[in-house]
Amino acid sequence: MERFLAQLCGTSALQPLPVWEGDTTGHCFTQLVLSALPHALLAVLSACHWGNPRNPGYIPRCSPGWRVRLASSFLLSIFPLLDLFPVVLPPRAGPGPIGLEVLAGGVAAVAWISHSLALWVLAHSPHGRSRGPLALTLTAFLPAPALVLTLLWHCQRGTLLPPLLPGPLSRLCLLILQLAALLAYGLGWAVPGRPQEPWAQEPLLYEGQEPEVAEDGESWLSRFSYAWLAPLLARGARGELQQPQDTCRLPDRLHPTYLARVFQAQWQEGTRMWRALYGALGQRYLALGLLKLVGTMLGFSGPLLLSLLVGFLEEGQEPLSNGLLYALGLAGGAVLGAVLQNQYGYEVRKVTLQARGAVLNILYRKALQLGPRRPPTGEILNLLGTDSERLLNFAGSFHEAWGLPLQLVITLYLLHQQVDVAFVGGLILALLLVPINKVIATRIMASNQEMLQHKDARVKLVTELLSGIRVIKFFGWEQALRARVEACRARELGRLWVIKYLDAACVYLWAALPVVISIVIFITYVLMGHQLTATKVFTALALVHMLILPLNNFPWVINGLLEAKVSLDRIQRFLDLPNHNPQACYSPDPPTEPSTALELHEALFSWDPVGTSQDTFISHLEVKKGMLVGIVGKVGCGKSSLLAAIAGELHRLRGRVAVWGLSRGFGLATQEPWIQFATIRDNILFGKMFDAQLYKEVLEACALNDDLSILPAGDQTEVGEKGVTLSGGQRARIALARAVYQEKELYLLDDPLAAVDADVANHLLHRCILGVLSHTTRLLCTHRTEYLERADVVLLMEAGRLIQAGPPSEILPLVQAAPKTWAEDGQESDPVTAQSVQNPEKTKEGLEVEESTSGRLLQEESKKEGAVAFHVYRAYWRAVGWGLALAILFSLLLMQATRNSADWWLAHWIAQLKAAKNSSQEAPAPTSLGSAGPLSAQLLLFFPGSLYTSVFPLPKAAPNGSSDIRFYLTVYATIAGVNSLCTLLRAVLFAAGTLRAAATLHRRLLSRVLMAPVTFFDSTPTGRVLNRFSSDVACADDSLPFILNILLANAAGLLGLLAVLGSGLPWLLLLLPPLSLIHYRMQRHYRASSRELRRLGSLTLSPLYTHLADTLAGLPVLRATGTTYRFEEENQRLLELNQRCQFAASATMQWLDIRLQLMGAAVVSAIAGIALVQHQQGLANPGLVGLSLSYALSLTGLLSGLVSSFTQTEAMMVSVERLEEYSCDLPQEPQGQRPQVACALTPAWVLEP
After folding, report:
1. Segment 1139-1187, tens digit of pLDDT
2. What's the predicted TM-score (pTM) here?
3. Which residue from 158, 791, 936, 1138 has the fewest beta carbons nearer than 10 Å?
4. Any residues with CB less than 8 A from the CB of 629 and at least 6 apart, and which?
5. Strand order in the sheet with 651-659
6. Where are the chain's structural domains?
7. Where are the residues of the annotated region Disordered (predicted)?
């Protein structure tokens, strides 16, 4: 390479690329490094924007700024070509060789042509509303220094002085024109003209405009860098991510409609779930294994190239070009590995979301096809939530199941190459920890089961306490019951104590493992008679860190695969349940007589397909059109079963069922009214178009006008889940109104008069059943036989058999006479509507009181927004205790310091070995350091050893002295032993501190709640208080300490890494302020959006559960009215909103990850570059360089882990915030003013723990 550069630049092979020539930079350096490289980068970045615009149908007009930039870019592509004529044509107008000038000019011309095309594409895309991508504009100005330096060269050479030569003069003129065009380009960007909208770096979301589609139509650079997320992140930073619609739309391949179509093409009845998923997504998922393989292989490029680079610095025998290639390979491998690993994680997450959409869609579709004997709703909801998520863990675990063993094998092989068989001792030590961890994990699981039992007992006791709080306060039993709760809490904390200290032992073993393995390997290697070198030591250190990951993660990967298998079996059992098709219950032919609406002949029905349950048999039944058919009989005689059989909800075992106009469906009012969580109007319309006249008639017929007039928002009043905010009578009448509004030909009414009093029942009978529905066929089940006197036919049921049918005069006398008044019947009148016909004023008054109570007494639960306040962290610090908290931090810092000291001692040992080896051979030639002076810039920049060598005088080592080896091994082992003790101390202190905090937070919460006045309990739902005592306390007990431990470890690791880098390469710290600023802004930008996206993800998940529960509860109504398709579309809409939030959250995580990875690659590149410059100056310390590089390779993981753990800690601290809200802000009863009669009345059961 040296000869090639020398030939290209016309220089000597000893210094092929001189940086300085006289008073200015070398021309070859200017043309290659300052001109050709920036132009090549500009060409690549510009080519990335040749892709289609995000919204192809939208083409704005070009502003003056865009036109100026386009013209300037075009001119800048012409000028370098014109500049080649004076160079090529004789006499040649230097200053460099012709090959160098042609190369630089050609690259510049290609770059600006590429940039012109990119500008044209961007100007005719939505970017035309803005200045376009800022990174692309900044890259366009990178060649400017080369132009300025070339202009200075012409000034120094006197190009404008006589005699004037045409060649140099024309080149100078073209150079000035290039600078002018570049200046015009900058003005076009800075002063864009009159835009139609405010200028920004990205198009904003305008009013009425849909959010952008994620990644579709984006260039490959935008996909790799996630630049398409800029509008979403900007909205998050401005606090505009308030609803799911604010997130970007899903790509086509993630849309639920597309996924349903692809999955249904592979799905058939009886198909195994995994086969269908493989057919739909398997090939793409398996192809990601290749990406995983390449990324894993690139992960080893770091240690291998580190070995070569340190060997290059240590031996000093290889040419500089080799070192340059090693450094470039290290940087390129880090960047390429970061991109591939990031894309692998992103693509796996996309496949996971695709599988999730397909699974949730097929689960919902299966729920619509369930028969009358279906699993409980809670079990199906568990399939939708827990099992589907556990099944999808397979996507992340499968490739890891083969990737981690492969990584382990390759790491062991490379360790063997470095330290021979000395690695076996460390491997045996690591493998011994696996069964130890298994025993610890088993004990933890057993203790966790016992702790959960004590937790259940405590929460149950708190529930009883809150339910009877008035009695407890009346008798003054607060202290006695507090003692009982504290006793339960003490037993719970006893089990938690065991769990935390076992967990501390586990943390200690894994935290101390890297240091212990390193000690065993290096001591074994030295005792085998080998000599340590920087190459072997720091390559082995990097490989040991890579060895820990597979050993630590593999058990969790296997556990994830086993959990996925269990969940897959549960989902498969659900999908294998027999489908129920109501249409199969009916004969394809209509009734024999055109006047017949319903005909049953020798029909036998059962609730299960084999007929083991009580069956319903109808020998013959024929119902004419327009008839009112009453169905009577004793309780449990099969009246509701008959209606369910006609509606197709029972299995028809034999016989014939024929219905006229079957495709129109039925009007069904079930015995248990089904009400959706929606407005009253939406419940009645049920998806049908609003008809004002019909709607008015239905409200009048169902006696709802008076109820609506007293409700807060009339028919726009939202009712709670299952209609909990309505009375029984209101629910029944709304369900009846829904059936009436559908305008069906056949109505199945299952006792709609049971929940209302006699006057309202009489109104419903005459105005609705005999009024609005008089032209339809009606089957009415009721116990109130007096309402069937005007029926056309009455059916008498007994034990599931139709025993007699006839006119009311014949059948009704056979039934025991029912009382004529509601009160005598033993039924309660409608508690809210009591009743609108008799006493509407009283009803209105009661509802006004309820509304007032709802508005003033029942307050909405407060919710904090934004980041967790500092006082919450301070409260947790106080709960741990000042002394204990400081001891934890001190032990943590001491642990990290001793770990870094052990590695630094290795670097010092190796440096002394090399110094002793050099001194034993020959005296080194004097360097130019002395002439540089004590304050030489070269000395300060490239010789960090001089900054502390005189401060820390350490003994020199002989190359083969056994006493020196024993000394260095003893010190190394001592430091490692101290590190192990500090690690153990930190684990134990942290467990003690978190246990103390858990006890303190619960004790303060319980005391404050028990001392709250009764008015607080009147205005606060019990579930809200219980949520603090259950989930929030559980989070403070377990989840928060777990993630906080990871956060502290990552923070200490980052501090130690910076300390090592600063001591080894002090000038590398110049990168720290800009990188810290970039990191702070990135994580702040990320957290602002990530926090809201997690909230929206949880917010959009609840409607999915609610919709499924609603569907299962109202399945008979959906099938009878033929609206299952509409509910399936609604499920896809809800799923699409949730998928949008989930996808956006994972994409923002990858957005942060790639930037942190590139930051780590930048640090590695900087270290390699400084090491090469040090080597050229003869000042490189291979030990310090190797130590710095081995630490820098883990920088990315530390930065990513720090942001991730801090984000999760912030989320967990919300529980502490909620506990502190009750512990500090609840009103308290005045103490010492209550009568002291409570103690004498306290029974024994209250005092028993």
Report:
1. 888 899 889 888 888 888 888 788 888 777 777 777 766 666 676 777 7
2. 0.72
3. 158
4. 623, 777, 778, 779, 780, 791, 792, 793, 794, 795
5. 651-659, 596-606, 615-624, 801-806, 793-798, 628-633, 777-781, 746-750, 667-669
6. 1-10+24-50+61-86+96-157+166-192, 249-418+553-580, 587-816
7. 823-858
